[in-house]
Amino acid sequence: MLSIQNIHKRFGDVHALNNVSLDLEPGLFGLLGPNGAGKSTLMRTLATLQKPDEGQIFFDGQDIVTHPDAIRSQLGYLPQDFGVYPRMSALALLDHIAILKGVINKGEREDQIMALLEKVNLITHRTASVATYSGGMRQRFGVAQALLGNPKILIVDEPTAGLDPFERQRFLDLLSEFGREKIILLSTHIVEDVRDLCPDMAIMGNGQIVVRGAPESLIDTIRGRVWRKSVDRDDLLTMKEGYKFLSSRHLKGGVQASVLADASPGTGFEQKEETLEDAYFAHLNGLV
Ligand SMILES: Nc1ncnc2c1ncn2[C@@H]1O[C@H](COP(=O)(O)OP(=O)(O)OP(=O)(O)O)[C@@H](O)[C@H]1O
Hints:
six-stranded mixed beta sheet, Rossmann fold, four-stranded antiparallel beta sheet, 2 domains, single chain, Alpha-Beta Plaits, alpha/beta, 10 helices, binds adenosine-5'-triphosphate
């Protein structure tokens, strides 16, 4: 349904998107990558806010680079920095956005807005100014505005950053509810968000898709090969140089380092259960 083919985007010397190709079907798709990987650039390009320098994007067979209108009416976008709100009530703001999205009929608009406010659990706060909402409420409002007009594609860029665990879960539940019928592209650097929610995912680094697959299949690529050891802080550099280093975690004054190896890498190492986070570092650092 959404086919991204060999797209490139450069900002001066920065190759923000370097030959990115992805085919997406309805369902939740997780895009995982560190800061600067190119996730937001990809999202903005899909949202037709900027054009790629090269490459094509097709939605239902139509080229959206040359015909952005083909996707705009089918697209809901919650950008990373959806943070400036006028002092308007949620109701008034949604009404305004719905008109901009072409939901002209007043009755239809009211029905959609009330149904969405119900879904995102803001119905009792609908007359309050959105500027007074908490972070979690704002993100849920963001989903409601993105879903106005019933788009077939929903793009959400790092939506859970800054949310407390309860609000984060509530937000993710909301996304998974819509994932059955829409293409939902969720960009994040929070590994658990993808692991818990997305049947399909990709890891992005340096403007490229490093690997794509189901979370479980990515974990399979490192199964039985993750080892950990408690080390002194000072030994960390040696670990990083001498092993296929995955990550380190500070624990009660010490450091626990994880490495990738086919067999025990030496004394003091114990095998640990592999996680999506381990797979993420293994692929991102070119260890598999
Ligand atoms: N408008 C721009 N002008 C110049 N450089 C840009 C612009 N937009 C993005 N970049 C650069 O492109 C690269 C990719 O940035 P992008 O924001 O897409 O990464 P990201 O994966 O979304 O990271 P983050 O999680 O920090 O948002 C970075 O090096 C960034 O500095």
